[in-house]
UniProtKB/TrEMBL annotation:
Keywords for this protein: Bacterial flagellum biogenesis, Cell projection, Cilium, Flagellum, Periplasm, Signal
Entries under CDD domains matching the protein: SAF_CpaB_FlgA_like
Protein name, as recorded: Flagella basal body P-ring formation protein FlgA
Residues annotated as signal peptide: 1-40
Keyword Signal (UniProt): yes
Annotated organism of origin: Vibrio variabilis
Keyword Kinase carried by entry: no
Location within or outside the cell: Periplasm
UniProt family annotation: Belongs to the FlgA family.
Matching SMART domains: SAF
InterPro entries (UniProt xref): Flagellar_FlgA, FlgA_N, SAF, SAF_FlgA
């Protein structure tokens, strides 16, 4: 059944005004929706923006040695404005910290004058020495006690070891569980009060002697040792299992 304008408003002036108010409001909302939809990003454009942000991380953040770097862009609101950028998307970020869990990447189209900030989550996996069996404090680590496992380096922030040779022959300083990543503070490569080999290096010549470590030490650390022959206390750098090198 068709109704004329006069028929629709015939019941009262108040109702007539309310009818036209709702009618024009609905028309206005429809035009707004159509205009908004026309400028919103498409699924393809959003996907390209995310891929550009992820690739920026992979191109500018160094992967861990022997491991992998994965970048995952966050979801993007489809209501953003974007275009099929004719000059290609440009990316940049203020951080290149490989240890960060998240880095925000700016993706922009300078030609069409729009930009989007995209948070990207980083996952870094790398080789770390882990135990295959539980060890008690004071035990010497054997080759059968350890293996190399790929671990999430973002969750594991402590200093560990990436090669088996770095821990085999070392002594545990506390009880350790099977499957646990070995940290530098868990072992002593050179242990306090134990006999060590002192390598004295001067002008390309190497002289070795025995000594006693006065402190615990890990690879690369500077520690104090006592020469067993001269009783002289010197400082050297830990360069191997029960080995300290002194450069003159």
């Amino acid at each position: 059944m068709m109704y004329s304008k006069s028929h629709l408003c015939s019941f009262s002036i108040t109702n007539c005004r309310a009818f036209y108010k709702k009618f024009y409001k609905s028309i206005g909302f429809l035009f707004f929706f159509l205009s908004f939809s026309a400028t919103s990003a498409t699924e393809s454009q959003i996907s390209l923006i995310q891929q550009a942000a992820e690739q920026h991380i992979l191109d500018n953040i160094e992967s861990p040695v022997g491991g992998n770097l994965n970048a995952k862009a966050a979801s993007i609101d489809s209501r953003i404005f974007a275009t099929d950028c004719p000059t290609g998307l440009q990316t940049s970020s203020t951080s290149t910290n490989p240890n960060a869990s998240n880095i925000t990447v700016l993706v922009e189209c300078q030609n069409d004058n729009w930009r989007v900030y995209v948070p990207v989550r980083l996952t870094r996996t790398g080789p770390q020495v882990t135990l295959t069996t539980p060890l008690s404090r004071g035990q010497i680590i054997a080759s059968t006690d350890v293996t190399i496992s790929m671990v999430d380096l973002q969750r594991y922030r402590r200093q560990g070891f990436s090669t088996l040779d770095a821990v085999i022959g070392a002594k545990t300083k506390k009880n350790l569980r099977s499957g646990e990543v070995i940290e530098e503070n868990d072992i002593c490569v050179v242990c306090r009060n134990e006999t060590v080999t002192i390598k004295a290096v001067k002008s390309g010549m190497v002289i070795t002697t025995k000594g006693v470590a006065l402190t615990d030490g890990s690879h690369g650390e500077q520690i104090r040792v006592k020469n067993s022959k001269s009783n002289r206390i010197i400082e050297g750098r830990v360069t191997g299992i029960s080995e300290v090198t002194v450069v003159f």
